[in-house]
Write a structure and sequence with these properties.
mainly alpha, Rossmann fold, binds adenosine monophosphate, 185 residues
């Protein structure tokens, strides 16, 4: 977990490789669908461009299908999901039905103003439609209102690990790996 720009996608890929499990990024899956102009892509394109959240039913169904694939058997890492309280509960129920559970929720704690600056730089670089300043502010506000409260639920479940998300990419990967090894041992 962590607000837009916290580096979740980059870190998820690195950690997944290190631990030999898939990184499942709902944002990346949605973006690929928009790019390919699939039915799902057409449904979510305008929502994503405005910085809003895709409806829970669509997102939950997508993750449910992805978690049923063979490569998730040894474990998996979710990036950008769950993002709402409803998604969290649906995920917990689904995993319980399949005899699994979330072991740990990692939150990258970062400075929001620096995240906005980072996202604006990325916009210039990659030209993502959801990286204009107005949309970035909207995404931050939605994160605070709808996603930040999930940390409290994971904390109550005893699963939350908060990490300093500021610093070099390698340094942060090291912190995350240490936290995960700690949970495993
Ligand atoms: P991300 O790359 O994780 O920042 O996601 C980019 C965009 O995809 C978000 O701003 C949402 O529009 C959409 N999205 C990704 N994950 C979710 C989710 N779990 N629930 C709803 N919308 C999502």
């Amino acid at each position: 977990m962590g607000p837009p720009g916290a580096g979740k996608g980059t870190q998820a890929e690195r950690i997944a490789e290190r631990f030999g499990i898939p990184a499942i990024s709902t944002g990346a899956i949605f973006r690929a669908n928009v790019k390919g102009q699939t039915e799902l892509g057409k449904q979510v394109e305008a929502i994503m461009a405005s910085g809003g959240y895709v409806p829970d039913e669509l997102t939950n169904a997508l993750v449910r299908d992805r978690l049923a694939q063979d490569d998730c058997v040894p474990g998996f890492l979710l990036d950008g999901y769950p993002r709402t309280v409803g998604q969290l509960h649906t995920l917990d129920e689904h995993l319980a039905q399949t005899g699994r559970q979330i072991d740990v929720a990692l939150e990258l704690v970062v400075d929001e103003d620096q995240m906005v600056a980072r996202l604006l730089a990325r916009a210039a670089d990659q030209g993502r439609a959801d990286d204009t300043e107005e949309v970035i502010r909207e995404r931050m506000a939605i994160y605070r209102a709808q996603t930040a409260p999930l940390t409290e639920i994971y904390s109550e479940q005893g699963k939350l690990r908060q990490l300093d998300g500021m610093g070099g990419v390698d340094e942060i990967t090291g912190r995350i790996a240490d936290a995960l090894n700690d949970v495993r041992s």
